[in-house]
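Progress report, Aim 2. The chain analyzed during this reporting quarter is listed below.
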Amino acid sequence: MTSPQLPHLATALRNPRYLVSEWPWRALGYLVSTAPIAGVLSVGLLLVGAPLLAAVNAVRQHGRPIPLPLALFLTLGTLALVGFAPIVSAAVAAVERWRLGLVDPRPLPARRWSGVAERYTSASAWREVAYLVWLGGVVPVVYWVYLLLVLIDILVVTSPWLAGDADQVIVLWDIVDRPGEAVPYAIVGVLLLPVLWYGLGVIAAVQGAVARWLLGSSPDIVELREVTRSRARLVDAYEAERRRIERDLHDAAQPRLTSLTLQLGLARLDVPEDSPAARPLAVAHDQAKGLMIMLRQIVHGIRPQSLTDLNLAGAVRELADEAAVPVTVHADLDRPVPENVETTAWYVVSESLNNVTRHASATRAEVRLTQAGDRLVVEVSDDGRGGADPARGTGLTGLADRVSAAGGRLLLASPPGGPTLVRVELPCHR
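Predicted structure tokens for the chain:
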């Protein structure tokens, strides 16, 4: 289930009318505005990187030791780069997030300044430093190569006019003396102009994708791990509390209500039909029976008794037998499934079959239960009209939330006209 996204350069590149749209000019503006920032950063990297490479090359080729002043300069320069990079990256990242709107207007969360110490301890800050290295080390090289290709193409296009001079002109790998000899090369050069114009967009799209990847919000690994563990603890606690409520209702309230219903039934037999108490007693008896049915449904909604009695495969087959359309069940479960996963899988099948009955106009459905590695895979398909949309209140959003709480994921394929396939993958760690 995906929400509609704003158009951006990466999607515009797939449009046949890309070359005559505004996107190539936006890409050009993005790259031109990148040049001064990348140039300044590359100078900073070269101040330390170039002497370092030269020193390493001298040691490797001639075996000379690095002079002490040079070693001291390299050490201090490296420490300065590493020390100031997290601070500089904060300002550069803020500018880059703003500039990214030229080629990718999708919102990119901004990071708040949380103090100097946080700049040296958070993973997000060091991802911004990595973007600084990319911007100052890789981007200039790509720009120079692209500029060289553009200059070569310009030379090829203008070669017929240059060949009219007294001197010989070298066009690619050939030497031309007359304009006529250069015309075929000029034609190829003109044909390559749209390719270079398109390549400009590819470079901008790749740069924007790297910026979004490195500058986007990324929780620290430790925090993300703790969130995952806390969610697992909450799910386990919820399941334990749900089982306790089910046990109390099933073992305490339900037997007493059943006994009350029997006593009222016996009392009805002892009271004459013409007695004033006969009618109120009959109403109370019917209400008790209705309440017993309701309580049974509540207990069934907490954890289906069929799961306890028949396990997952049997409970799903019971759902299939009760469905309004013919349902075929294929179950290949060779290992036990954790209880909370069983419950989630049962609800997936139950809600999916309800959707088939109410919304799909299907004539048949199929349920598959398989185990792939340490995951339980549940697939529910039907031959209905398709077009399932979570926004229309078909229960898919709540189902996706339930699956996500169990650590799984839900995939939906439902093109207009059908068929519809709901696939759920649930982890089975015991």
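Confidence is low (pLDDT under 50) at residues 1-5. Residues 309-427 form a domain with the Heat Shock Protein 90 fold (CATH 3.30.565.10). These observations will guide the mutagenesis work planned for the next reporting period.
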